[in-house]
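For the sake of clarity, the format in which proteins appear in this thesis is described at this point. The fold follows as a row of integers, each naming the local backbone shape at the matching residue. One such record is shown here in full, so that the layout can be seen directly:
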Amino acid sequence: MVGRDGPARLLGAAVRVLPAGRRDWGRAMQAELAAIEDPADRRGFAWGCLRAAAVEFHLLRGALHVLAVLAVAGTLVAWAATVNEPPLAWMLSTVVSLLAVVCWAARKAGMLGPTDDGVAAWLLRGGGYLIAVAVAAVALAHSHPATLEAADAGSAVLGLSTIGAGFLVGVVSVAGRRSAATARVLITGVGSALAATAGWLLVVLLAPPIPATVGWALAATAVAAVLAVLANAGESSTIQACLLAGLIATAATMALIFGSVELLAHLGPDRLIPDITPAALPGQHISESRTEIVDPYVLILFLAGAAATVLGLAAVATRRPVAGSSRSVTG
């Protein structure tokens, strides 16, 4: 029966994965196919419909979303089987699960931000997929590391990918169409972070060296968060706006301070570098301290990634309700 041959099954499968609002077109194409009897014509018509659907309805992009979800889920299983450190395993499980959710939820136009066909949307999608690929590659490499150094390097890449994923989720979510973050929230959040980081840098430059602990960095972060919240506290403000502004300031301040420490450690004058390597050979105290001073601030970087992830979740949880009917796209 022609109604159950290959072209009919192919077109039927394509119709099933079309967005709900486009399935009427697919059913119309199925009706036209049923009226065609010649096998070659049926094959040509079915392939033509499939190509048109792939171009107009982004079926290829939808397939990439599904593959991304399956890839990161498979990565989670492969990595978890080899990780012997419970904290690292939990961190990976959380982040990879979040990446899978983000890849799938990005199909909804109003969920996480600009998911259409503009340059910003393309860059965000590309960044998300690159992070997912990086995590998958590190997981595969770490499953059978050649040396202990290779295993440590894999963990470092995993950590950076984790932080990158947290910031990507945070930025996309807070910039979403339905986000409760107004222009004022974004400006005051980032502005508070810049002001607090500038204050921390000023203290370091006027009263060197760089603090060997993260206490002052955490204090500057707290100041930035308070400033952002106060800047959005008023009669016309909302709790959601204050929350998002505080989280933006927190994540941005910690990331900026870590970046500042990296720059000062590599490029700053010797007077800014504390002697934290008493066991170093004579004449090598400063050079080794330049490397070691960054280590305490890695905690700040991980906290920044965690704050960015919380920012993303808060932006989704506080997003504005849909005005009218929402349109689903596979972007």
Summary: Confidence is low (pLDDT under 50) at residues 109-115, 325-331. The two ends are 37 Å apart (CA to CA). The CA atoms of residues 20 and 316 lie 24 Å apart.
